[in-house]
Write a structure and sequence with these properties.
This protein is mostly beta strands. It contains no helices and 18 strands. The radius of gyration is 18 Å and the shape is globular.
């Protein structure tokens, strides 16, 4: 929740048997303001790790079964973190998107002071827009996709120094962009959902009466 507290439940698929197992304060120094993003988390099932950040200057890596913080990774940015994703197979690579449009990549195998291995800063006015969502593909080619508030979608290979593909599904605003876990398909949403291939080709539109 936005006050920094994490709660873990079991039997959540059945409302009658849903049981709170444990809870703890994952972020201790969070300060809520009208522009707060609260608590941003990423669950790594393969490692039992919970990655937590938000209105703080670090990414906290929690060993969930032990409820112990095992690592603090400095985000090394004056901008605010808005979104976070990780490689859910090995669990070592973490990517974060920021308010200023920058994208940073961290490797938790390194010392926390040297964990930031890549930083992509916006080079044009179009790129200087808050990143609404970043997502690393679980299967497939493990592509990293970022979506900006102004409608810019970019595909990344973290071994490269710039985006390998970029396109703009919407000319004004976009609420989110999400890549399929296995197929080379990206869904982008605003007042409608548009499906694109990872090469930027429009596949189909899904109309919607409201705002997604």
């Amino acid at each position: 929740s936005s006050d920094g507290i994490v709660k873990i439940y079991k039997n959540f698929e059945n409302s009658d048997d849903c049981t709170l197992l444990t809870s703890w304060r994952a972020l201790t120094d969070i300060i809520l303001t009208p522009r707060s993003v609260g608590l941003i988390n990423e669950w790594q099932q393969s490692r039992g790790s919970l990655l937590v950040t938000g209105d703080v200057k670090v990414i906290k890596v929690w060993d969930a079964p032990r409820e112990k913080c095992v690592m603090d990774i400095p985000i090394r940015s004056t901008s605010q973190v808005l979104t976070m994703t990780s490689d859910l197979v090995s669990g070592n690579i973490i990517a974060t998107g920021f308010q200023d449009g920058s994208l940073r990549v961290y490797d938790r195998r390194l010392d926390s002071r040297d964990a930031m291995v890549k930083v992509y800063k916006p080079q044009t006015i179009l790129e200087k827009s808050p990143l609404k969502n970043v997502h690393m593909q679980r299967g497939g080619l493990r592509e990293l996709v970022s979506g900006s508030a102004n409608g810019l979608v970019r595909l990344w290979d973290i071994r490269q120094d710039s985006a390998i593909e970029s396109f703009r599904p919407f000319n004004k605003t976009m609420t989110t962009a999400y890549i399929h876990e296995h197929a080379p398909v990206i869904a982008c949403a605003d007042k409608e959902v548009r499906m694109y291939s990872t090469s930027g080709e429009l596949i189909t539109n899904v109309s919607n009466n409201g705002f997604i």
